[in-house]
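Hi L.,

You mentioned the student needs an example of a multi-chain input paired with its predicted structure. This one should do, with 648 residues in total across all chains.
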Amino acid sequence: MSYHANDKGYYGEFGGAFIPEMLYPNTEELRQNYIRIMEEPSFKEEFHQLLKDYVGRPTPLYFAERLSKKYQTKIYLKREDLCHTGAHKVNNTIGQILMAKKLGKNRIIAETGAGQHGVATATVCALMGIECVVYMGEIDIARQAPNVARMKMLGAEVRPALSGSRTLKDATNEAIRDWINNPVNTHYIIGSVVGPHPYPDMVARFQSVISEEIKAQLLEKEGVENPNYVIACVGGGSNAAGAYYHYLDTPEVGIIAVEAAGKGIDSGESAATSALGKVGIIHGSKTLLMQTNDGQITEPYSISAGLDYPGVGPMHAHLFKSGRGEFISITDDEAMTAGLEVSQLEGIIPAIETSHAFAIFEYKKFKKDDIVVINLSGRGDKDLQNYIDYFKL
Amino acid sequence: MKENRIKTKLKEDKKLLSIYFTAGYPSLNDTAEIIQHLEQNGVDMIEIGLPFSDPLADGPTIQESSTAALHNGMNTELLFDQLKKIRKTVSIPLIMMGYFNPVFQYGVEAFCKKCQEIGIDGIILPDLPLDVYQEEYETIFKKYGLINVFLITPQTSEERIREIDEASDGFIYMVSSASTTGAKTGFGEKTETYFEKINGMNLKNPQIVGFGISNSDTFNQATKKTKGAIIGSAFIKHLTQNGVEKIDEFVRGIR
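Structure written out for the whole complex:
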């Protein structure tokens, strides 16, 4: 049994392409070409060159000595926070902008929640000189002023999503509507392993560079390719998909996904999709999502804008349902406390998304000899105001 | 068994006017009155929108009506109750239109069974793709005598149009341009060419045009080479401005 997508884009019962006919030609063009293009030597060369010289890959795999000592296990941090633009998001946007060029597209659209994916998209569009429109919920625009300014400085147009709850879910709806209205010249760069096939698989493949590097780096440091556990936070789940990718079909590597419980799973203000979600359709994919009994998609909540999504990528839904992955929910408070601890033990201020992953040690004990890799998906600069408000710094 | 009302209607020698409205809008209990007025004023078919929180293929007008309808308290069970009552007094073909997730949560078979009991004639679910329908749900739709309506757009390839025509048993919903609902009004030269192309394909199913039709000019243009046309956003705007009492004025303005 494989935990990768099959040729129709299904992970077990999850995935597929539940899209209106208006989007069929767009996704079909992508579906027919993405693997072929990704395997072209010239594409691979340009992708890896940019990851190296522009993004700054490979990112280090760092042995966190003081953290390891405290939790009595061997903790390695995969430093995606050191990527250009401050998070793993850029691995995917580099890949997709090259894909868009190969497909002859001259206009890019994207959705963004906190603005990290928007910034990563605006960045690669500036790099390639391609027009860029980023949809962002009106409420998020107000909350994330520095990232809005970054996108504008990079030459992107930021369009407010005024519908629904005016956050990430609605920004995604608006981007999809834009794609319906501009089916020929536009490529939609989705920022996570969500959306209709082939997006979840394509984004996972672009992010798979994370686990490809972990394997080589662990071999060098520990003499083994496989850790005992790989841990990542999951909103839509792209950093997790990249960190798990080359270990999915290696059962001896434990996969742990950390979701945002917000103010608590039963509080009504949570984004813990595995605990609260049911099978349904969101943004063109059959997956687990938070919804009413009537099938209306509900509003998630998390202190971390990057985990504030009512669904989860179909790969993760399958990892959860099949039991291959262990899912743990972490509250706002637990995440913030863990973020502060990592800052003071290791001198690294993590993004609040990533801070959720660090809170796992309160829930799970590892053996002294276990090798535990945590994907440090992003840095905390963007969250400084949240940390300041929370800790009254 | 009685013939499906959509099929009977399609045999009439006239251009068909179909109207879409969002159930639960402007007020929760307007459904019956809207349907009654539409039938009385000579509309040929009605598409009843089951509101959804995230209507991807819709522009602002239908989005806002859906949000308002949900806020008013509309849900699947309630809509079924409303339709059950009104069906006893009207004979116009009724089509349920919505997104797949609410139907999936209700249970596809339970939903179809209920539709048959009430006297619903067809279903349009834009985000239920052809292949999934054929593999998983076609037998259920057929078992309950429901016509499933597929969409085609100017970007749909000829090969796929043939496939959709083969899978259809009623009419094809012909989206007039690459857009969400209510985005454009009127048709350019490109749309005319598209109408000509489809007309020339001699499909076995008649086509009914939707998106971009708002008045008698666009209705006449759209139906020159097709069986009929569907009006959605323009009707909802009319309801917003004039309420349910003046539906006759709207319909008279079309033909």
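You could point out the following to them. Residues 130-143 of chain B form the longest helix (14 residues). Chain B touches chain A at residues 52-57, 59-60, 63-64, 67, 70, 75-76, 99-106, 126-129, 132, 150-153, 155-157, 160, 175, 178-180, 183 (CB under 8 Å).

Best wishes,
N.
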